[in-house]
Amino acid sequence: MSARKRSALWNHFETEGSDSKKAKCSYCAQVLALPNGNVGNLGRHMKSKHPTIPLVPERQALPPSSSATSPPNTTPSVPALEQINLEPLRPRYNNPQPTIRDFAIKPLPPRRAEKIDNQLMMMIAKEFHPLRLVEEEEFAKFVALLNPSYSLPTRKTISESILPKQYEKLLQITKNKLATDSAAVCLSTDGWTSINNESFVAVTAHYISHDAAEIKLETVLLGCIKYTERHTAENICELLKTFMNDWQIKNKVTAISSDNAANMIAAVRAGNWRHIACLAHSINRAVQTSLGHISSTHVKVKQVVEYFKRSSHAQTKLKEIQKQLNVPDLKLKQDVATRWNSTYDMLTRIVAIKDAVIATLALLRNDLSLSTDDWQIIEQAIPILKIFNDVTTEISAEKNVTLSKVSPLYKIMSNFVKGLLRSAPNTPRMPQIQSLLTTLDQQLDRRFAHLESNDMYAEATILDPRFKRRGFKHDRNYETALNVLKQRVGRISQDPETIPRSTTSQSQAEAPVHPAGNPSIWEEFDREVAGLRPENSIAAGIVEVDRYIQEPMLSRQGNPLTWWHQRKEVYPHLFRYMLKRLHLTATSVPCERIFSKAGYTLSERRSRLASKKLEQLLFIGANAHLLKCEK
C-alpha cells in the first residue's frame, strides 16, 4: 500500500483515474482533486458533507461462525457459490474513536465576526451596558457557550475601533437621510448636567419622510455634546448655527422647540428662528402654580410617603394590612419637585390604598395621619389633575403629529376647567379646590389662548384632517388662519415644481395648436385666455384648500400623514405645504428622553466614561433605527 493510502480517509474514498490524482467519495460519488497527493481536500469534504461519519471507526465484531450450524466438511456446490454476492461490502462500525480534528473549532469568517461585533456594540449602546461588559467573566462564558468560534473583542478594541467606526457609519447614514428625505426640519433642544457635573446640550431633528410606498414622521439625534461655554443666549444661538451648518439644514429649519427658559427663548429669537414653547413644560408650570392652593395637604402626603420609604418596618406592616384588607399590594410613590405629574401619581396611589395607609399609620405613626379634609382635597384634586396628565402623555409621543393637537387640547382643557367652575354653586367642593380651578383657568388662558393666532399652530391644526375648524376654540381665529393659508398655497401653486408631471403634460396637451398659415377664428380668444393663466394658477391653489376643507374629517384615531400620502396627487400644493407644518413638534420631550438615556449610560458603573464616548454611544442608541438590518 502506498504511503498516502495509509490515511484513514481512504476508508471512505476510492482512487479515480489511471494517474491516481483524483478520488471519488464512496457516499456521494463526488470526485475531488489530490494536489501533490495531499489528502487535505478529502478531510475537508468529510467534515463539510458527511460530518456524522467517523474518520477512524472501529470495525464491528464479526458474526459467530456458521460452522456450528452447518454440517462439517460441507463444500458448497458451484451453483451456490455463483449465488453469493462477491461485491465488497462497506464495513459497518460502532463506537467510533474521535480524533483531534473532531474537536477542532473553526474560526469565524471575518464578515461574520464583524456582524457579531456590530451587534454587540448595538446592544451596549441601546441597552446602556458598560464597555467593560466584555471583560466580565460570566458574560464571556455565556458567549462561549453560544458560539465557541467567536472571540470577544477587548474593551480597548470596542472603545478605539468598533465604537468610532460604527458611529462614523451611522453618522453618514443619518446625514444622507436628512439631506435627501426632508423638505422641512424642526429642531428641539435642551440641556443636562451629568453626575460628573459636566454640562451637555442635545439637539434633535424632526421631519416627514415620504416616498412612493410610505410616509412617516422621523426623529433623529444630531448630537448630544459636552458644552463648556456659559449657557447665554448668544452662545446657545451660535451652537445651534453650528449644528445647522454641520448638517447642512440651515435653509430647512422652520422652527425650534425648547422649554420656556429665558436663555433658550432669547437664543432662538437671536437667530431669527420661530420658537415653539414646549407644551409639556408649559402645562407643568401652569399646574405647579395652581397646586400652591393645596400645598398644605401636598406636604402632609409627602411626609407620609417619605416615612414609608425610610422605614422597612412600616413598609412591611403596610403590606400585611393590605393583605388583610384584600386590597392590591401597591407601593406608595414619591413625587419629584420638577415634575407635577409625579405629584399626580403620588396622590393617585395613596388614594388607591387609602384604607391600608390609615390603618397602618394608626398603629405606628398616628401623628402623620391625614385629616378628613385632607382626604377630600386629594380625592377632589385627582380627577382635575387627570386631564392634564393625559394631555402631557398624549403630546409627548415622538412618532405622532403633535403641533396640530395644541389648539384642540387647549380647547378641551379650557372647556373642562370652565365647566367645573360654572358648576360650583351646585357641586360641594373644598375651597382649596375651587381656588385651584380658578388659577388653572387663568393659567391656561395666559399660556395658550394666543396660540390660535399663531400661524404655525393654526395652519397645522387646519392641515390635520382630524381637526380643521373643530380644532379651534374661536371661529374668528380659524377664519383668519384659513385666509392666510389660501394665499400661501396660492403662491406655491405658481411654482411649476409643485405641479405633478401628469398635470403639466395635460396642460401642455390642451394648449391650442394652429396650423401654420391657417389662422383660427379662436386665435384672439386663446391669447386672452393664455394671459389669464397666472391668475388661474393662484386660484387653483385656493380651490385646493376649499376642496380639502369640504372633505369628510378623518377619525381622531386615524393617521393624518397616511391620509395626505393617499391624496398627494389630488392636493399637490397643499401636500407640499403640509410637509412644512405637520412635522413641527410641540415639545422638547425627545431631548429630555436623550438625557434620561444619558443618565443610564453614565451611571455609577460608568462614571469614568469619557464625554466623547458618551456622545457616540448616545448617537448610536438614538439613531440605530436608521441602520438597515444586516442579513
From TrEMBL:
Subcellular location: Nucleus
Gene Ontology BP term (one): post-embryonic development
Amino acid composition bias (Polar residues), ranges on this chain: 500-509
Keyword Metal-binding: yes
Disordered: annotated segments: 56-79, 493-517
Domain BED-type: 4-51
PROSITE patterns (alphabetical): ZF_BED
GO CC list: nucleus
InterPro entries reported in the protein's UniProt record: HATC_C_dom (IPR008906), RNaseH-like_sf (IPR012337), Znf_BED (IPR003656), ZnF_BED_domain_contain (IPR052035), Znf_C2H2_sf (IPR036236)
Protein name: BED-type domain-containing protein
Protein species of origin: Loxostege sticticalis
UniProt lineage: Eukaryota, Metazoa, Ecdysozoa, Arthropoda, Hexapoda
